[in-house]
Amino acid sequence: MTPLRQRMLHDMQIRNLALNTQKTYLVQVSGFARHFQRSPEVLGPDEIRAWIIHLTNERKLAPASVQLAVGALRFLYRISLRRDWSDEDFPLPRRPVKLPVILSFDEVTRFFESIPSLKQRAILMTAYAAGLRVSEVVQLKVTDIDSQRMMIRVCQGKGRKDRYVMLSPRLLEVLRLYWQDAHPRDWLFPGSIPGRPISRHAVGDACQLARERSGITKPVTPHSLRHAFATHLLETGADVRRIQLLMGHRSMATTARYYRPKVVMCSVESRSR
Length: 273
What we know:
Elements: H1 3-14, H2 19-36, H3 45-58, H4 63-80, H5 105-113, H6 118-129, H7 134-138, E1 145-146, E2 151-157, E3 161-166, H8 169-182, H9 200-214, H10 222-235, H11 240-247, H12 252-256, H13 260-272
Antiparallel strand pairs: 1-2, 2-3
Domain Tyr recombinase: 98-273
Keywords: DNA integration, DNA recombination, DNA-binding
Pfam family, one: Phage_integrase
């Protein structure tokens, strides 16, 4: 490991960045250095700009992926190398604003009815009924389910934050059936490797299999189940601030994506009267 890579790793550890973020940033910086076949210490804004153009035009990366690469370089140069560079030296592509595709209540019901595996149904229903990210679902432990308070504890979710989310009676019923069948001890949803939780990839595969069985034509991912949770809460009259807390969103702007379709529909209806 080069001294610069070690320094950047230590800087990320000091700031308590998530392990996945640390790994991703190191990969991004390594790709940047390999492309120019020189140490990042001797590269500058011109090379950063050329790298962004290469990622966009040659590798055809989406704006979100390019932003991730720029974020890694911004950390390297501003934090680890202490370069006093402005935002203009790290140009970011604008991300298109897209509304999530939302499953209806009937589609959600049909989706879960198509899952023959009790474990897979419990996992995906937890993602929907608690509005969890797939990374949060796979990290749940048996002790995180508090049936007395009807709450689920999410330990160190995105942004290294703990939070509590609601545990619905229907989800509790499914989790109890699953526990009686599988008797998990530590991880709520253990994987094929002893002592390890189920992988996010395995949950994604289970989700796609359920979509195919259900005959739903809309794209369905564990994250779209989370989107459906937020939208269905809004449609039943839940307060937006409460939805923000349950979803673990840092910014209200993120939560706002879920009520834009409703606002647009109301506007269309008012004009048609």
